[in-house]
Amino acid sequence: MLGEILQWIKRRKVVVLVLVFSFIVSGLIINVLEFATLPLYFINKKWFRIINTKIVYLHWCVIPWALESWANSTVDAYVDESVPDPQNMINKEHAIITMNHPGDLDWMFGWVVINKCGRLGGTKAIMKDVAKYLPGIGWTFLFMEYPLLKRDWTHDQSCLVKACENLKDYPVNMLLCLFAEGTRFTKEKHRLSMDFARSRGYPVLKHHLFPRTKGFCLLMKHLRQTGGTIPVINV
Fold it and tell me: Could you read off the pLDDT of 63-72 as tens digits, one per residue?
């Protein structure tokens, strides 16, 4: 009986709107808290970063909860047998996570896995520069020192190098996520990707876009000395 009532509540559009509104408002409250910690950045950057990973988790943990508890979604993670303890491997050091990008919401399911590993607060991603103008989650990208790109290599190269130098001494185990394909998968983009692969004599990928390696190679060059792992997530 109780389960049926909960399902009825979940189907009400007004309830969904209230939840979305609450998420947006709570994001703005988080921004105020983040802004209040800004003077600490110039006094003790280490504690500024530690405190902000805790603050941002209070907001971002809603996404995994919404998928698992509200939408009743299940995320199954399949790991290569050669990795004896993948969760501990991710937890003990910095990591660069490469993902494919089949849709608009795939990153949310990545957050579910990352949250299970206890690393959501320290997660970063390479994002479009325009995202920083979004109140709430976009402003948090600035406080969390996300690398923000403009798809102009002259700008993006210096941005990535600066981000690498800035994040080398990050005090919390950090997950840096990037989409290896560089953009969202569509049929037209896939066709162009296959044409490019054929013209260069590269393998033609059936379910992925041809990866863009320039940024990844730059990251590896500058972050190699920090150690860490490179998990690959395929959605």
Answer: 999 888 888 8
Cross-strand bridge partners of residue 98:
178, 232
Single pTM value for the model:
0.83
Q: Give the residue extent of every domain in the chain.
A: 2-76+83-233
Q: Which residues touch 96 (CB under 8 Å, ≥6 apart)?
A: 175, 176, 177, 178, 219, 220, 223, 228, 229, 230
Using left for φ > 0, alpha for ψ between -120 and 50, and beta otherwise, residue 170 falls in beta
What per-residue confidence (pLDDT) applies to 86?
Answer: 64
Separation CA 94–CA 60 (nearest Å): 20
Predicted confidence (pLDDT) per residue in 139-195, tens digit:
999 999 999 998 888 889 999 888 888 888 888 888 888 888 888 888 899 999 999
Length of the chain: 235
